[in-house]
Amino acid sequence: MKKIPYKTNQNHPAIRAYSEAVEKGLESYHVVYRGNGWIVMRADSQKPDRTFGTQNEATDYARGLAKNMGTALFIHGSDGRIMDRRDYS
Question: How high is the pLDDT of residue 62?
Fold first, then answer.
């Protein structure tokens, strides 16, 4: 899979929070759009945990995982950019 570089504003709160979470080594979950639907995946995994038809379904499932693990949840828009971050640590 080819990664597409995005221009990011490093001062944006969501980007800064993501950078801090990565630096701390937190296991985080991500809700990301892929061509066939919305997927939930851990940050350290290349394979999705589960695929959903809507972003809301994926977010609800990922929220439960993040709460149980005490980690952060990053919700991406259909363009791949982080739209929301929720911390359950």
Answer: 95
Structure tokens at 82: 């982080």
Per-residue tokens: 44: 């350290």
CA angle 70, 22, 76 (to 5 degrees): 80
| DSSP string over the chain | -PPPP----TTSHHHHHHHHHHHHT---EEEEEETTEEEEEETT-SS-SEEESSHHHHHHHHHHHHHHHT-EEEEE-TTS-EEEEEE--
**pTM surpassing 0.85?**
no
Structure tokens at 45: 């995994």
Residue numbers of the chain with a pLDDT score lower than 50: 1
Distance CA(80)–CA(68), nearest Å, equals: 25
Strand 82-87 versus strand 37-42 pairing type: unpaired
